[in-house]
């Protein structure tokens, strides 16, 4: 399952996407996120509870600003580099 966290508005699209099928819940991305926007949470995926990475509730509506420091580095963001399973993607379209 693909989980999208973020939003679209008149200025662009700002999303962090987590592929729960690939995410193994290791937590490396949460440790490397400089803004502490990521956390591990239990989600109901494919008829079972699974621990996966997710964007914290208070950061979801402000992802454009919370993750602004990583926006310009695209695929080299700390969370993406930390994810050995390649389960995280960032979308910044302005």
Radius of gyration: 12 Å
If you average the pLDDT, what whole number results? Answer: 90
The count of β-strands is 5
For the biggest β-sheet, the strand order reads: 1-2-5
Number of separate structural domains: 1
Here the CATH topology equals Alpha-Beta Plaits
Q: What level of helicity do the residues show?
A: 10-25%
Q: How do the helices and strands follow one another from N- to C-terminus?
A: EEHEEHHHHE
Identify low-pLDDT runs: none
> Strand pairing plus helix content: what structural class?
alpha+beta
Spatial separation of the terminal alpha carbons: 26 Å
Biggest sheet character: 3 strands, antiparallel
Q: Supply the number of helical segments.
A: 5
Strand percentage, roughly?
A: 35-45%
CATH class: Alpha Beta
Shape: globular
CATH architectural name:
2-Layer Sandwich
Would you spell out the secondary-structure blueprint of this structure?
Layout (H helix, E strand, L loop, with lengths): L1 E8 L2 E8 L8 H5 L5 E8 L2 E8 L1 H4 L2 H4 L1 H4 L6 H5 L5 E6 L1
Antiparallel strand pairs: 1-2, 2-5, 3-4
3D architecture notes:
With 94 residues, the chain is α+β, with helices and mostly antiparallel strands. The protein has a single domain (2-93), classed as Alpha-Beta Plaits (2-Layer Sandwich). It is 23% helix and 40% strand. It has five helices and five strands, in the order E-E-H-E-E-H-H-H-H-E. It has a three-stranded antiparallel β-sheet, with no helix packed on it. A two-stranded antiparallel sheet has the order 3-4. The longest helix is centred in the N-terminal third of the chain and has 5 residues, at 28-32. The chain is globular.
């Amino acid at each position: 399952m693909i989980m999208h966290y973020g939003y679209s508005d008149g200025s662009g699209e700002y999303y962090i996407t987590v592929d729960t099928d690939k995410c193994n819940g290791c937590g490396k991305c949460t440790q490397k996120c400089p803004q502490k926007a990521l956390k591990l949470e239990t989600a109901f995926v494919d008829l079972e509870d699974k621990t996966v990475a997710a964007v914290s509730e208070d950061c979801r509506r402000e992802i454009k600003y919370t993750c602004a420091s990583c926006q310009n580095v695209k695929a080299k963001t700390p969370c993406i580099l930390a994810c050995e399973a390649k389960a995280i993607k960032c979308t910044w379209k302005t």
